[in-house]
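[recover] target loaded
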C-alpha cells in the first residue's frame, strides 16, 4: 500500500510514493501480501469506521 509508506520524524517527512493516495483516502491491496480474503475483511472494517475511504477496484480483482 503505497499510501501508507510514510515515515515521520521531528521536522522530517518521508513519503517515497507521495501523499496523494493518503489524502484521497484510497485503499489498495499490498502486492507483496496478496491475501485477498484478508484484504477484503480489513477493507470492510476500515470502511465501517471511515466511510469516506475508497477501495481501489484493481485491488479487488
Amino acid at each position: 500500500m503505497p499510501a501508507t509508506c510514510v515515515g515521520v520524524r521531528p521536522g522530517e517527512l518521508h513519503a517515497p510514493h507521495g501523499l496523494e493516495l493518503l489524502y484521497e483516502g484510497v485503499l489498495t491491496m499490498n502486492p507483496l501480501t496478496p491475501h485477498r480474503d484478508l484484504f477484503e475483511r480489513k477493507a470492510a472494517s476500515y470502511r465501517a469506521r471511515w466511510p469516506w475511504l475508497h477501495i481501489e477496484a484493481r485491488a479487488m480483482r
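[recover] notes: The mean pLDDT is 86.
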